[in-house]
Amino acid sequence: xxxxxxxxxxxxxxxxxxxxxxxxxxxxxxxxxxxxxxxxxxxxxxxxxxxxxxxxxxxxxxxxxxxxxxxxxxxxxxxxxxxxxxxxxxxxxxxxxxxxxxxxxxxxxxxxxxxxxxxxxxxxxxxxxxxxxxxxxxxxxxxxxxxxxxxxxxxxxxxxxxxxxxxxxxxxxxxxxxxxxxxxxxxxxxxxxxxxxxxxxxxxxxxxxxxxxxxxxxxxxxxxxxxxxxxxxxxxxxxxxxxxxxxxxxxxxxxxxxxxxxxxxxxxxxxxxxxxxxxxxxxxxxxxxxxxxxxxxxxxxxxxxxxxxxxxxxxxxxxxxxxxxxxxxxxxxxxxxxxxxxxxxxxxxxxxxxxxxxxxxxxxxxxxxxxxxxxxxxxxxxxxxxxxxxxxxxxxxxxxxxxxxxxxxxxxxxxxxxxxxxxxxxxxxxxxxxxxxxxxxxxxxxxxxxxxxxxxxxxxxxxxxxxxxxxxxxxxxxxxxxxxxxxxxxxxxxxxxxxxxxxxxxxxxxxxxxxxxxxxxxxxxxxxxxxxxxxxxxxxxxxxxxxxxxxxxxxxxxxxxxxxxxxxxxxxxxxxxxxxxxxxxxxxxxxxxxxxxxxxxxxxxxxxxxxxxxxxxxxxxxxxxxxxxxxxxxxxxxxxxxxxxxxxxxxxxxxxxxxxxxxxxxxxxxxxxxxxxxxxxxxxxxxxxxxxxxxxxxxxxxxxxxxxxxxxxxxxxxxxxxxxxxxxxxxxxxxx
Amino acid sequence: xxxxxxxxxxxxxxxxxxxxxxxxxxxxxxxxxxxxxxxxxxxxxxxxxxxxxxxxxxxxxxxxxxxxxxxxxxxxxxxxxxxxxxxxxxxxxxxxxxxxxxxxxxxxxxxxxxxxxxxxxxxxxxxxxxxxxxxxxxxxxxxxxxxxxxxxxxxxxxxxxxxxxxxxxxxxxxxxxxxxxxxxxxxxxxxxxxxxxxxxxxxxxxxxxxxxxxxxxxxxxxxxxxxxxxxxxxxxxxxxxxxxxxxxxxxxxxxxxxxxxxxxxxxxxxxxxxxxxxxxxxxxxxxxxxxxxxxxxxxxxxxxxxxxxxxxxxxxxxxxxxx
Lengths: 736, 323
Prior knowledge:
Chain A has 23 helices and 19 strands. Chain A is of the alpha/beta class. In chain A, the strands form 4 sheets. Chain A has a 7-stranded mixed beta sheet, with helices on one face.
């Protein structure tokens, strides 16, 4: 046990007063700790950054009372991404009680945060240059600054991407590719910017023959001003960030009318970028790293302020708690990895992984196939964006379940197992919604079906959790494979999207088998996969336009219906229920899966979005025409021509579908499917699980009705989410 | 079949074909047809041969079990071919149009997964620890492929990391074949270990030879276009050797060619010439020889039986085809 030595200047020394450091100092001071906040400059001061704080960060600013100090900050409600040669896409914040994101110059933001830390009781020491850490017996005991030793039980290093302290502690090394670099400037006289962050990637060189791991941004700081900049994710031979920056500005000026008259305001600034966060390297005895010093920047969007704030707050929490014995700060690593698992690729593969994901994003930017929609969202959309869990599309299953059924804890366990299983192979994949924590885990999903079905036998069998996780992975693998188009879009180029889909599905299937190995469930899982393949083959061969009845029959054997049916059957069988019970649960699962899919399919065609956040553009692209669309087609044969054209508009599809009687028929069909499945439940013993399944079925059918009602309310079927289709522009960065 | 003359092995290989086709039967005829496309064309069946030869070092053999294990491992391999060909956009395989060229990518991927599931079903029925080993090999295959793809177009790919990929993506199934054959025949631990080492080294030698062939062989021998790995950004051993050991100016030129976003046939031909001219093929061949020697010395630790001579012969044959 170490005690604060008498000469300690504080309980905690925080080095660096940017958002991470100031936030840590604030929270420590609020907890009654003595904090010394050191910075080499004096505030206010300018800083190179994109200045954007997304929703996750806004909540932390609000908690500190910072928003009141930032009246001029420009609200932003989403992100518009332009990838070379593709039409832009928008990721809008979901409507809800949360506040807007903000763009606020770091000169203002950091000053406000430092003042709040001081007001809370932190002792600010400006113009202090920290030379090094002071370590005794392998424990950090303070820092040396200005020729003096400053002692404290805990040091929080928030000294930025180039963190000398983390390097001294052996917690960072320059990655093989060298650090990335970003440059930014403020510009004025920009016109027509709205409340969206603009993001362009990747930048290419003049002849567009070289692809650079890079991005550009233009973030509005006010009605006519913006922060514009470029980031180069890794060092690339012959690529210079200043040339990239100049070319990017030129491109904006000549290619985008909004930027035609822009003038620079103030100096250009640059800073290194680090994306190498690893939970294993965020602390040492007596030392915690926060923000950029821990390498916490999104490699895809450069977002860093919200990570900085959150890691600062968590560092404060852990420092406070471990002050008496700060040798073991490993809880900080656990907190960070639990919170940010999937945001950062760690280890030696990081650079290659990022490159692969960039290629996939680039290759599939126009595609609405499920796996690409998921990856795009996982990589580009900050938390709180419209979509999973926040748009009201995902159903929180909990209120539908009988209180006595008690599967919540098991569902969370399945989620943890999934994340644990996939994380070692590819942390990024754990951000796919089905694998991430939160609302998706508690939604109506195959794992829930497995657990409910197991309630009809011995539900305490230990292999049930693994089985539930394996069924989820198999389902995702199937979803990934359905992303493989029948023909490559461009014969002459690598098909990154297809490669990704195949790789992801193979890794997930391998992991699913691994989960099944212990319980001798491999043959069971193999059988599900075989059945899925057989049905998929039939579906592919049925062509684009089978009769609606045939489609419905195929639907019952593929996709969610097959998955939920298998989940019900297997859950029952593995828990020892008899075959008749397993069959009834299989039917219930099939009915549930069918209703879920009908709700998704009809939602898109009526101008809404499905559970994956996709709109009617997906229907233009898919080789498999949905049941609702086939019904509409029967009434309006013109739709076939619309589907055959490459340049059809989703709006027109929605308008035409709204004029048919398709919606009412789908609602009726869903109601009947749910009723049939419910009737099957009547053969089972009454109890919490039976009642829960009945409630889920009723809910799924009523979701179809709700979608139909919402579609009818918009009248002509005009889209509820305006699709983002603007002119296509290519971003290149001139000659390098 | 000059690469294996061991009588029991040859006999078993003859019985394997029908079992493979039978295993891939599906109630859906179209699926049966697509899923049998590759096994119907034959192929060397190297991995089953390893299962059979390895089973000669144990006291007992249940013919049916052994055949099933060999079929399962061959099917695991075949399943990866379906998926690899789609990913690499290979036009042909074993001299015939590739599955996706004939039936489309979606069908080819689905059939590959079906083949995989059938293999797992067979493996699941085998005695422990074979199913667990197979599970590890399957994961290694998937991760190896992932690692290869994420290093596509990476001219900075290190030879050491390349070997890591080869161990996973190629050597793991060779090793599994040998270990499964040994375990199912009740071979002792020393034999299992020696056979495992043999399989792993043989796999690495095989991969090196395969890489060399991609730059040296002509289309007729290869059954596909030479240099196709280069076009797909899959830098094999000769390419990595040329990048590491070639003359400075040539290295730089090669790097520049490989950095092109979409190289044309001329660019690729020039890159191939640079690799051939750099002496890298000799380096890569030396690596293949090194692992072949390792395989042979592992085999020498086995009792002297006809199967041991067959394993050595098989290794020599594989490495010499690269010349």
